[in-house]
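In this supplementary section we document a worked example of the pipeline. Step one takes a protein sequence of length 109 as its only input; no multiple sequence alignment statistics are reported here. Step two produces a three-dimensional model, which step three serialises into structure tokens for compact storage. The input and output of this example are shown verbatim.
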Amino acid sequence: MDALWLKKTVGEPLLNGLAATAEFQPEDSIDFLGRYLLKYVELKEAESKREEYSKRVKSLLERDDIEREQVAQEEAKSKETKQKSLEKLEKDVNYLSQACVKTFDEELH
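The serialised model returned by step three reads:
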């Protein structure tokens, strides 16, 4: 069980570190392997931060898209309401104009 845990947690980086140590055959192989493993951890942490940052940016962009869509819908609704108000006002003005003309015609005759 301990061997399985070791294989699962440090197997890949340790295997790669040992392979690199064998390939380069440094004078101080323990120091080389230690530095290799530290660099591995540093790269994994940077990758994790990059993924976290990417997710955050994606989330912010999605939120921005949603807000833009809401604003566009509100603007469209406002424009529609203004258009309807303008049409009603035009009808009212036409009606009043016709009423005034009719009243004026009746007074003339």
